[in-house]
Amino acid sequence: MDVKIADSWKSHLVSEFTKPYFEALTLFVKNEYKSHTVYPPGKQIFSAFEHCSFEDTKVVILGQDPYHGPGQANGLCFSVNDGIAIPPSLRNIFKEINTDLGKPIPKSGNLERWAKQGVLLLNATLTVRAAEAGSHQRKGWETFTDAVIQVLSDQKEQLVFMLWGKYAQDKGKNIDTQKHLVLKASHPSPLARGFNGCQHFSQANNYLTQNNLPEIDW
Question: Is 122 exposed, middle or buried (0-12, 13-18, 19+ CB in 10 A)?
Fold first, then answer.
């Protein structure tokens, strides 16, 4: 795995790349791509960072695993490639935006347009073996993405963190709530209850406006 992470992030995370856990993770991921079908494509492992620079980050949404079906994962949490059926959780997110802000439900589930506005769409684990959910968990990715969250919390101000479900809330437990807005709700999966009606998208935009930052066009 070549760590082709965007330059704006490299200086903030460079210390991670030489740690033993990351070297072991790199070896594991390289071997997985050689011997199995792994998602997303290798060039898109760090897409979340390429589409959303450290300087531009205004909102952070935490996911867990990339999608493990053909053609779905593109390196952004909850996002799928153009032309791919919108997964149930993402459809629920779009429904909440429709209810909260009155915006029409998009035909594409590709969230690059959010990322380019400063929404970091960060999965806890950045790779997965095809058809095997969770197969790359506890290999080191979580340590790396914990470091990303810590750097953002420590070095930035007035970010909005959206933590959906217990997993994301546990992962974000060390975020400095004095400096940032932390929004919590149930996971958007149709199997969970409590996400619909959370109004996170209007709350995020109100907070950004109050801090003289541009709103996100959700």
Answer: buried
DSSP conformation letters of 111-136: -HHHHTTTEEEEESS--EETTBTTTT
pTM: 0.97
Angle at 137 between CA 6 and CA 151, to 5 degrees: 40
**Tokens, residue 30:** 């390289």
**pLDDT for 87-102, tens place per residue?**
999 999 999 999 999 9
Single-letter residue type at 198: C
Catalytic residues: 65
Rounded to a whole number, what is the distance in angstroms from the first to the last CA of the chain? Answer: 33
Residue 175 DSSP code: S
Residue range 141-193, pLDDT digits in tens: 999 999 999 999 999 999 999 999 999 999 999 999 999 999 999 999 999 99
